[in-house]
Amino acid sequence: MASTDFSRVLAFLRKERGLSQRAAAEALRISQALLSHYETGAREPGLPFIVRVCDFYGVSADYLLGRTLVRDSAAALDPEEVYDAQSEKDNRLGRASASSMLGRKMVVNAICVLFDLAGRSGSTELTAELTNYFGGAVYKMFRHFCVQSDADGFFSVPGSVCGAASAADMARSEARFLTVLHRKDDPPRLPGVTNDTLYEEYPQLVRSLLTLTHQAGSRAAKYLP
């Protein structure tokens, strides 16, 4: 366990709740002195205490130990419980610049097509690896924002290697995706993908997909001999 991560998050959760050390210690059934030791990193707790803290503050153990910024386990999420930013027209995201809104809409539209194609294939593995791959891209870019804001302390992968590590994780996800895609036994039931079928199936989304594809292809071509 990284005691510095744990102690920092433990103190943060208490202060966020507006609790004194005495009140938090009573709720967690330990002495104030012991809680102070935990919050300063002078001592490390046992598993029963970690479980009590997770239950009391409603966070996952990974969050408490500083291994993730996500408070709850992503595996337990119900699709209906996940907020859809695209569903509101007048939320905070709608006040972004025109170029930001265009880029966001194009990327979201294109990704929606990819996830729909994977979902229609009947393969949960394809969907999982798409999620992992795009999650890796989000991780890399979000971490750049965090580093710039001096908020890099929550990440478990050291900053000196995070770029290479996340690139390796994305490459692994892509390799697993391709393995499933080209599997001979029990292959995924892929829908046909042609220009006509794309316009027929995704009339509102296809322009975003093809525009991003064309732009990315043009950039990639510059690196060819």
User: Helicity level, as a percent range?
Assistant: 55-70%
- Spans of at least 5 consecutive residues with low confidence: none
Number of strands: 0
Strand content is under 5%
Number of domains: 2
What is the rounded Rg? 22 Å
Order of helices and strands: HHHHHHHHHH
Shape by Cα distribution: elongated
* Largest beta-sheet details: none
Mean pLDDT, rounded to whole units? Answer: 85
Structural class: mainly alpha
Name a few traits of the molecule.
single chain; 225 residues; mainly alpha; 434 Repressor (Amino-terminal Domain); 10 helices
Topology:
Blueprint (H helix, E strand, L loop, with lengths): L2 H15 L3 H7 L4 H9 L6 H11 L3 H4 L33 H23 L3 H25 L13 H20 L13 H7 L4 H16 L4
Helix pairs in contact: 2-3, 6-7, 6-10, 7-8
Task: Report on this structure.
- By secondary structure, the protein is an all-alpha fold.
- The protein has two domains: 3-76, Orthogonal Bundle (434 Repressor (Amino-terminal Domain)); 79-221, no CATH class.
- The protein is 61% helix and 0% strand.
- The radius of gyration is 22 Å and the shape is elongated.
- The relative contact order is 0.08.
- The model has no long low-confidence stretch (mean pLDDT 85).
Task: Describe this structure in a few short sentences.
The chain is 61% helix and 0% strand. With 225 residues, the chain is an all-alpha fold.
